[in-house]
């Protein structure tokens, strides 16, 4: 089912003197390539310098290591996005690759003010997470005017205002051509080619050399047929729309179509080994039988968010949404991020003493664990509140505070040892006081005894740390 | 003013091209243009539009032939194979008996959740949290329970009658020596009150204090004898044997709780079966739930691995799964009024952010294989039940997949 390459298949294609070429053993190179820790393109340069017979070996290697699901590029320049590239049905058996970009829609009957306000919202959206930000990735332009000229103008305005990659959404080939003309050189994704407009859309995809979505309203025979026909006519950059139901009641068919198409693609059906596009935007309509005591707009946002999240888990490689509320965007950007995090990479930071801002002897001293999420949260909470201080990331093997206290990885003894290793001397601080995470409150007495300092218990959530420090720092001098 | 690019203008263009000696093309050959010639035609089209010319119909016809497209669709039949690696079904477990009028069964899956190659034998169920004393709750959760916070029985009733709970979890938090140190006997009384108040199955939860819980759960299990409750929970850091024995003795199901460690889960399950004589249909697993954004990826993959191990033949892991979905409320995104990070975009209204945090945390785990959800917010319960209900339903509603979204002005 899953395409997983054994290092033993790679081994014979590698040069013998890997030690001098790669600085590591032949088997280690084979293992890293098989586990995708090293990309085949990373070794191209070295192969180019090898004797001619290695050109063929490189081709074999590239073929062996090419992902089962094709990678498709959308956009151009810095913001170019690659989608697809997966090899497995279940993320823990390897990892999922190329986090699905989230596109938000705009439409060509918006006034300039509305359009620019919406684009600004899309491109300025950011959510802090683990030392970095999560963003929205693309703009999907819909033609609500039905007029090619209006659509083309709208695309022009968007391009002048934003460098995010585009999805041009219309089934009318004339409108699509106007959009493609306006977006020439920007490599937008065309949505979409169906059985009715196939000829015109195929021509456009070839003429403009851009990726194209094929769609058949959930009919899988027709989906396969479209893919086979387009490929025969010379189109290779295909994205498949499995069909997203417009009501939540049809969600089961949508969900199973995604699974069927991905499995068929991974099993070797070349017509279906392409990235899948989800349309949570089409799922906004609520089931007529549902009676919610929520505003209709919020129900629509919820349906869209649930659809987007579930389809991210099960194989969507790109998606279009409409809602821009925090209650929708926050869950969506977190789900896409977490499902595409490499499950083999422990999420931890180097356990050491970190300086936030420009601390001196009167600055607060805190500790947290080296679980990346915990550390970065504390660090940025302090930094964004303008605090200077010292934060020790205690080595808990990457566990969070609560789990590490419960599991015995975070004890007074461990805290003491980590401060010693960091050569931090409390005697040189004005207050000789350590601030404990609220979730490690139970270590207070023991830390005071074993480290001979004052230990005070901070808040349960570091989001409240800034306020807590304002009220509690500096502490009374330890006597 | 746009000027028409005429067919005859092409001759001039080609003269230029010829004088530069780059291409030698006969106009008469263009209709059957191939390869480089196609490329050239496309360029001409671009040049003419750059020069502000529109193409005339004759030239357009030529250009449209630049990319020959198949007249008919290729015949193709979609085919997909079943997941042959799944050989073992998950154990079915019944919750509720005795005076419980609405018992139900969970488990029994033969493939991964809602996959196409086998029907979901039992739908997902939700048990809603009730506490034996007022506790700190997120504002948007609390507002649903203001009138019942002091009365666990009324709280349970409200959850069943108004919010559609399939089951009630009574958390005996007041028994913790650090809180109220309520006696096991007192706690057992609370359990009896809950059993009187509702006719759905119940989960009996301790305070999480590993020293006190065995005694509390034992007394409570006795008070609920014959009702086939879920005893929450046994774990490796406590006298799990005492808890397991009580579950077995009084006819309950045991919740085997471990902390995101598939090997520890196997170990505890094995110990409960061997040392306490728990029956095959008397165990549910809780491998720990972390909130979205706070380690849900680990919880997800751990659960998916456990379920896949069960389906592919590991007899020690082929049991239904339970999730403390309520943990979603630990995420600051669920309850804080705004982001503490100055650089974050607007987080929006927390009234709407909280429930969806719980829904998505639960929904993600439903897709990993979770069967039973411990939840808090009525709206979260409603949406999770709606969507898992649609996915788990034996039949498929063929609702429209239309293009309305393409042209609709929202």
TrEMBL record, chain A:
Keywords: 4Fe-4S, Iron, Iron-sulfur, Metal-binding, Methanogenesis. GO terms for biological process: acetyl-CoA catabolic process; methanogenesis. One of its GO terms (molecular function) is iron ion binding. InterPro entries: Ac-CoA_synth_d_su_TIM-brl (IPR016041), ACDS_complex_subunit (IPR051069), AcylCoA_decarb/synth_gsu (IPR016218), Dihydropteroate_synth-like_sf (IPR011005). Residues 71-468 form the CO dehydrogenase/acetyl-CoA synthase delta subunit TIM barrel domain. [4Fe-4S] cluster binds at residue 18. It holds the Pfam family CdhD. 5-methoxybenzimidazolylcob(I)amide binds at residues 368, 374, 398-401, 462. NCBIfam families: PRK04165.1. This is Acetyl-CoA decarbonylase/synthase gamma subunit. It comes from Methanimicrococcus blatticola.
TrEMBL record, chain B:
Pfam families: CdhD. Keywords: Methanogenesis. It comes from the Archaea. InterPro entries: Ac-CoA_synth_d_su_TIM-brl (IPR016041), ACDS_complex_subunit (IPR051069), CO_DH/Ac-CoA_synth_dsu (IPR004486), Dihydropteroate_synth-like_sf (IPR011005). Coiled coil: none annotated. Belongs to the CdhD family. PANTHER family: ACETYL-COA DECARBONYLASE_SYNTHASE COMPLEX SUBUNIT DELTA (PTHR36214:SF5), PTHR36214. Heterodimer of delta and gamma chains. The ACDS complex is made up of alpha, epsilon, beta, gamma and delta chains with a probable stoichiometry of (alpha(2)epsilon(2))(4)-beta(8)-(gamma(1)delta(1))(8). Part of a complex that catalyzes the reversible cleavage of acetyl-CoA, allowing growth on acetate as sole source of carbon and energy. Probably maintains the overall quaternary structure of the ACDS complex. This is Acetyl-CoA decarbonylase/synthase complex subunit delta. It comes from Methanimicrococcus blatticola. The gene is cdhD.
């Amino acid at each position: 089912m899953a395409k997983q390459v054994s290092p033993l298949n790679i081994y014979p294609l590698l040069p013998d003197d890997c030690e001098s070429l790669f600085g590591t053993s032949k088997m280690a190179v084979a293992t890293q390539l098989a586990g995708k820790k090293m990309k085949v393109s990373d070794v191209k340069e070295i192969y180019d310098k090898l004797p001619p017979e290695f050109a063929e070996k490189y081709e074999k290697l590239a073929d062996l290591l090419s992902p089962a699901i094709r990678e498709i590029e959308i956009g151009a320049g810095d913001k170019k996005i690659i989608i697809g590239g997966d090899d497995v049905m279940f993320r823990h058996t390897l990892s999922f690759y190329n986090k699905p970009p989230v596109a938000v829609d705009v439409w060509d009957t918006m006034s300039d003010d509305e359009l620019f306000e919406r684009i600004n919202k899309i491109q300025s959206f950011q959510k802090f997470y683990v030392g970095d930000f999560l963003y929205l990735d693309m703009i999907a332009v819909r033609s609500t005017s039905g007029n090619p000229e209006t659509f083309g103008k709208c695309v022009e305005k968007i391009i002048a205002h934003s460098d995010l990659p585009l999805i041009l959404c219309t089934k009318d080939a004339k409108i699509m051509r106007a959009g493609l003309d306006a977006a020439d050189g920007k490599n937008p994704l065309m949505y979409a080619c169906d059985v009715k407009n196939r000829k015109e859309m195929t021509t456009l995809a070839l003429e403009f050399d851009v990726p194209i979505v094929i769609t058949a309203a959930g009919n899988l025979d027709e989906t396969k047929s479209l893919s086979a026909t387009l490929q025969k006519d010379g189109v290779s950059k295909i994205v498949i729309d499995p069909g997203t139901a417009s009501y939540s009641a049809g969600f089961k068919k949508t969900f199973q179509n995604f699974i069927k198409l991905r499995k068929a693609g991974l099993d070797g059906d070349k017509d279906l080994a392409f990235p899948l596009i989800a349309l949570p935007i089409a799922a906004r309509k609520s089931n007529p039988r549902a009676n919610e005591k929520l505003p209709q707009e919020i129900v629509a946002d919820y349906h869209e968010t649930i659809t987007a999240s579930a389809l991210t888990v099960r194989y969507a490689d790109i998606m279009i949404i409409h809602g821009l509320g925090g209650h929708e965007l926050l869950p969506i950007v977190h789900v896409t991020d977490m499902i595409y995090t490499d499950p083999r990479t422990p999420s931890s930071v180097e356990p050491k003493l970190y300086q936030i801002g420009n601390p001196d002897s009167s600055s607060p001293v805190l500790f947290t664990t080296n679980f990346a999420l915990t550390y970065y949260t504390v660090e940025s909470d302090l930094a964004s509140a303008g605090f200077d201080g010292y934060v020790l990331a205690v080595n808990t093997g990457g566990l969070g505070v609560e789990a590490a206290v419960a599991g015995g990885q975070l004890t007074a003894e461990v805290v003491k040892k980590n401060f010693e290793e960091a050569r931090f001397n409390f005697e040189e601080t004005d207050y000789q006081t350590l601030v404990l995470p609220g979730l490690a409150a139970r270590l207070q007495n023991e830390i005071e005894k074993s480290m001979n300092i004052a230990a005070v218990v901070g808040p349960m959530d570091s989001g409240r740390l800034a306020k807590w420090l304002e009220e509690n720092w500096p502490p009374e001098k330890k006597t | 003013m746009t000027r028409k690019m005429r067919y005859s203008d092409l001759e001039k263009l080609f003269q230029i091209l010829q004088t530069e000696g780059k291409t030698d093309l006969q106009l008469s050959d263009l209709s059957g243009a191939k390869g480089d010639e196609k490329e050239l035609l496309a360029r001409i089209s671009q040049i003419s539009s750059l020069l502000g010319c529109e193409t005339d119909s004759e030239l357009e016809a030529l250009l449209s032939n630049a990319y020959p497209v198949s007249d008919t669709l290729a015949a193709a039949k979609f085919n997909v194979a079943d997941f042959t690696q799944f050989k073992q079904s998950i154990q079915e477990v019944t919750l509720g008996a005795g005076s419980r009028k609405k018992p139900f069964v969970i488990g029994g899956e033969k493939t991964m959740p809602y996959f196409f190659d086998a029907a979901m034998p039992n739908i997902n169920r939700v048990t809603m949290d009730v506490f034996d004393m007022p506790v700190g709750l997120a504002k948007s959760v609390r507002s649903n329970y203001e009138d019942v916070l002091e009365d666990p029985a009324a709280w349970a009733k409200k959850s069943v009658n108004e919010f559609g709970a399939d089951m009630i979890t009574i958390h005996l938090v007041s028994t913790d020596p650090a809180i109220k140190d309520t006696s096991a006997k007192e706690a057992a009384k609370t359990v009896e009150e809950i059993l009187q108040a509702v006719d759905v199955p119940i989960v009996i939860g301790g305070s999480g204090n590993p020293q006190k819980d065995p005694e509390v759960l034992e007394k409570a299990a006795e008070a609920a004898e014959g009702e086939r409750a879920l005893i929450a929970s046994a774990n490796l850091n406590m006298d799990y044997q005492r808890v397991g024995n009580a579950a077995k003795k009084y006819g309950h199901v045991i919740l085997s709780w471990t902390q995101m460690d598939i090997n520890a889960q196997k170990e505890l399950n094995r110990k409960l079966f061997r040392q306490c004589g728990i029956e095959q249909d008397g165990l549910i697993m809780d491998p720990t739930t972390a909130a979205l954004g706070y380690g849900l990826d680990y919880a997800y993959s751990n659960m998916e691995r456990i379920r896949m191990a069960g389906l592919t033949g590991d007899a020690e892991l082929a049991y239904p799964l339970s999730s403390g979905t309520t943990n979603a409320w630990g995420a600051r995104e669920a309850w804080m009024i705004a982001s503490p990070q100055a650089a974050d975009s607007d987080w929006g209204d927390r009234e709407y952010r909280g429930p969806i945090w719980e829904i998505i945390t639960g929904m993600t785990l439903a897709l990993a294989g979770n069967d039973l959800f411990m939840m808090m917010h009525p709206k979260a319960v409603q949406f999770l039940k709606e969507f898992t209900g649609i996915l788990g339903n034996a039949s498929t509603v063929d609702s429209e997949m239309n293009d309305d979204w393409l042209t609709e002005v929202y």
